[in-house]
Amino acid sequence: MLRVAIIGCGKIADSHASQIGRIKGCEIVGVYDREPLMAQQLAKRFPIKKAFSSLTQLLDEARPDVVHITTPPQGHFDLAKTCLEYGCHVYVEKPFTVWADEAEKLIAIAKERQLKLTVGHDDQFSHVSRRMRSIVRNGFLGGSPVHMESYYCYEISKAGYSGALLGDKKHWVRRLPGKLLQNIISHGIARIAEFLVGDSPVVITYGFTSPLLRSMGETEIIDELRVIIHDVDGATAYFTFSSQMRPGLHGFRIYGSKNGLMLDQDQETLIKLRGARYKSYAEKFVPPIVLAGQYLGNASLNLKTFLGNDFHMKSGLKFLIESFYRSIIEGTPEPIPYREILLTSRIMEAIFRSLSESIAEPTRDYGREHAAAVV
Amino acid sequence: MEYENIIDKNDLVLVTGASGFIGYRVVEGLLELGFQRVRCFARSSRGGNRLEALAKVDGVGSRLEIVNGNLLSPQDCASAATDAKVIFHLAAGRGEKSFPDAFMNSVVTTRNLLEAAANNGCLKRFVNVSSFSVYSNQHKSHGKLLDESCPVEQSPALRGEAYCFAKVEQEQIVLEYATRRGISYAIVRPGQVYGPGNEGITGRVGIGTFGIFLHLGGSNTIPLTYVDNCANAIILAGIKHGADGQIFNVVDDDLPSSRKFLRLYKRHVRSFPSLYVPHAISYALCYLWEKYSEWSHDQLPPVFNRRRWHTYWKSTRYSNEKLKERVGWMPRVRTEDGLKLFFESCRVRRTSA
C-alpha cells in the first residue's frame, strides 16, 4: 500500500484527494496546511487518516512514500526539497517552481537520491491528449512538427479566484514574478515543450493588461499574452493566453510536413487535418463532410467513455497520478520527462523576465513587448 | 414591551462585508438608528465605492469609518476589531463552488475575527450571519414547522454544497469561541434574502441548469425576507438585550408560495417557459443522481441529492416568532411591497443588461 500525503489543502487539493481515492493500492495517511483549519476541513471530507499541524510531524509520524505539494507556487521548492530529503517521492502542482534554477536543483536532488518527481500538467493526460500523443508517435504528422499553436485562456470574473485576486492587492498570485500568468499558463506551455527538441528555443513575448481590467483600475496584472517560440530545428510555436477572447480556448494544434492535428481540451475532441488536397470543387465539399464525421466520432467516443465511467472532469489527473505511482512502484520512467519539466520552466521564466524588463520601459502606453532567448 | 440596547449610540460597531448586498443595508440601518461610530470593513476599495458615496452624504461622513482589508489577515482583523463593542459579521464566501474556498472565506476568516475580538476584550456581542441552508430538515414530515430548535446538518459535506458546509462549520467555530473564550454571540439565519441588488430567482423555486426552467417548489412556501427587513433583524440581534446566545431565523410575514412567486415574476419581469416537476419526481431524480454520483465516484458531482431536496424542495412552514418576541423585530417592508420593488429592480437590470 503506497502511503500518500498532501501538503496544502486549498482548492486543488480536493481534486488530488478525490482522484487518489479512485486509485487502488494507495491511502492518504496525512495532510498538512500551515492553516490547521484548512487541513482539518480536508480530512473531514475525504478518507484521510490525520490532519497534521506541522510539516515535520507529518513526515515523521505519517511517513509517506509520496507527497503531493498543492500549495501556492512560492512554497513548492522548499517543500519539495524537504520532502525529497526525507526520502519521499514528490508530485508538485503546477507551476513546478517559481524559478527555473529551482527546478534544476529539485531534479538533481531527486536523481541523486533515486527518487521520483513529477509536475501537475494533468491536461496532457486527458483522454484526448493521450490519443493525440499516440497518433503523433505513429507518424501521422509526417515527421517532426513544423508549427504548433497552443491556447490557454482564462475567463476573468468577479467571483471566485479571479474576484479574490482582483480585489486583493496582497494576494499571493500578485507576488509571483509572472503573477496571474505564472499560476496558469504552464499547461499550455508544457504542451509545446513536449514537442521541442532543443534546450534553448528563442522566446518572443508580448503581453499587456486588457482594456477590461484597466477599466477596473487594474495595472499590475497582465492578462493578455502572445508568445512566439522558435526551436533549434526550425519548428515554431505560438502561445496565446487571453482573459478576453471568446470562446476561452484550451486547445492545441500541431502541424507536420504531411498532416496536422487539432485538439480541443474543453470539448475533448481531436480532429485530423489532412495535408493533401482534393481536386477542384471536391476540396469544397468532401473535407467538411469528413470533418463532420470526425466530430461525430469524437462525440460517440466521449459518450462511450462516459458510459464506461471513465470520463471524470479530472480524469487526466487520475491518469497522471496513477502513472507516477506506477513509475515509483515498478521503477519505470516518470510520466513527464525531466527535460520537459525543465524546458517548460525555462520558457516560462524567459516570458516573465522579458515582461518584467519591459515594465520599466513600456514600449507603448498600453502594452509591453520584448524579445528574449532562453539561455 | 421594552427592548433595551446593550450599547449606546456612541459605541463603536463593526460591520464586515459592509459593501455587500445585506451588509450595506445594515450600515444604513445603523446610521438611521443614530449610531455615531460605524466601522465598515470591506475587502477591496472597488467594492467600497458605494460606502464612500454614503460617507459623502451630509452628516454621515464623521460617523462612518471605511476600512479595506482581508479577514484572512489576522493583522487586518485586529485593526478592524479594535474597540468594537458589537461586531456584525456578514462577510462570507458566497457563491463559492469550491469547498476549500468557501471554508477559507467563511470559517478561517471568522476564526481570525473572533480571535481578534477575544483579544480585544471589549466586545459585547458577535453577530454571526448564517443561513437557512444549515438546517437539515431531513427527519420532519411534509409541511412541518422549521424553527430555531430544528437540527442542523450533521454531515454538511454530503449536501454537495460548499456554502452549506462552510456555514455549518462557521457556526461551530462561533460556538467554540463562546465556550472557550467567553465570546457573547447571536446567530442570525436568514431565509432567502431578496431585493434590489440580488435579482436572481432562488433555487427554492426552481433551477435552470438543464436548459429549461424546472419549477421544483410547487405549492411550497418560499422563506423570503426582504433585504431591509433582514438587515433590521441583524441589527436588533446585535444591540438588544435578550439576544445573547440566541439563534434567530429571519423570514417575513405573508410569504408567497413558489408557484405564486414564479407567476408574479413571469408577469412583472419576463415570461419564459418552465416545467413543473412534482415533489415525488424531483425526490426520485435527486435520489438517482445521488446514487449514480456515489457509484461513479463523482463522474457527476453530487450536487443533487436527498439532503438537498429536503432542505430546498420539501414542503415546510416557517416562523419568525422568536425574533418578534425576543428583540421586537417587525418586518418594515410588507412582502407585497417588497416583491414589487424586487420585480422592478429585475426589470431595470434586464433593460440595462
- SSE topology string of chain B: EHEHEHEHEEHEEEEEHEHEHHEHH
Spatial arrangement of strands, main beta sheet of chain B: 3-2-1-4-5-7-12
Shape summary of chain A: globular
- Summed up, the helix count of chain B is 11
The tally of helices of chain A reads: 13
The helicity of chain B comes to 25-40%
First-residue to last-residue Cα separation of chain A: 43 Å
Q: What do the pLDDT scores of chain A average to?
A: 93
Proportion of residues in extended strands of chain B: 15-25%
Q: What is the helix/strand order of chain A?
A: EHEHEHEHEHEHEHHHEHEEEEEHHHE
Structural class of chain A: alpha/beta
Q: Largest interface, per-chain counts?
A: A-B, 29 and 27 residues
C-alpha end-to-end distance of chain B = 48 Å
CA-based gyration radius of chain A: 21 Å
Number of strands of chain A: 14
Beta strands of chain B, count: 14
Give a short account of the largest sheet of chain A.
Answer: 8 strands, mixed
Structural class of chain B: alpha/beta
Strand order of the largest sheet of chain A: 13-12-11-7-10-9-8-14
Can I get a quick summary?
The complex is a heterodimer of chains A (375) and B (353). With 375 residues, chain A is an alpha/beta fold. Chain A is built from 13 helices and 14 strands.
Structural overview:
The complex is a heterodimer of chains A (375) and B (353). Chain A has 13 helices and 14 strands. In chain A, helix 1 packs across helix 12, helix 5 packs antiparallel against helix 13 and helix 9 packs across helix 13. Chain A is globular and about 70 Å long. With 375 residues, chain A is an alpha/beta fold. The longest helix of chain A is centred in the last third of the chain and has 26 residues. Chain A has an 8-stranded mixed sheet with strand order 13-12-11-7-10-9-8-14. A 6-stranded parallel sheet of chain A has the order 3-2-1-4-5-6, sandwiched between helices. In chain B, the strands form 4 sheets. A 7-stranded parallel sheet of chain B has the order 3-2-1-4-5-7-12, with helices on both faces. Chain B has 11 helices and 14 strands. Chain B is α/β, with parallel strands linked by helices. In chain B, helix 1 packs across helix 6, helix 3 crosses helix 4 and helix 4 packs parallel to helix 5. Chain B is globular, with a radius of gyration of 20 Å. The N and C termini of chain B lie far apart (48 Å). Chains A and B meet through helix 1, helix 2 and helix 7 of A and helix 4 of B.
